[in-house]
Structures are given as C-alpha cells and as structure tokens.
Amino acid sequence: MWFDVATAEIHRVAFSFDKWSGQLVITVDGIPVTQELHLFSLSLTKRWAFDLGVQERHSVVIEKKRKLLLAGLRPQTVRVLVDATLVTSASM
User: All domains of the chain, ordered by start, with CATH?
Assistant: First the structure.
C-alpha cells in the first residue's frame, strides 16, 4: 500500500508487510525508513511514527492491528494518519 503526503513538497510513503515471512518495510520516496522482522509479538497494535518534509512538515503515523488468535491466517488492519487525520485504512 502506498500514499502521498503533502501538497507542495510531495513524498510517497509505501508500507509493505508479508504476514507469512514477517518482513515489514516502510519507505519514503523509495528509501527504506524502517525494516523489521515480526515473527512474534504480544502487542495487538504496532505503531510507527515519523515526520516528513522540510518546508512543509507533516507528522505520519502508521498503525497495524492484528487479531488475538491466528493472526497470520486472518486479515490485519493498517491505518494511516497524517497530522492526526485518517488518510487511509486497509486490510492486508
């Protein structure tokens, strides 16, 4: 999933999560910002927050929520907030 942030100083943010391998990657303009391996977690919600832009600053938060049981077999919800406003939500 990907989305654009800003109006004048546009940045493309991409979020990729493979629930079978546990590989998670967040990129900004094609450059990896976060690369993680998620094979086990006690938390039902994982959150990543970062700021973008120089002239036009924006706060980006990506939240991934999983179910309690059999999370790898069930859809997981990803929500994206830019400046505390919901931009997109998707099931993966």
Answer: 2-91 (2.40.128.180)
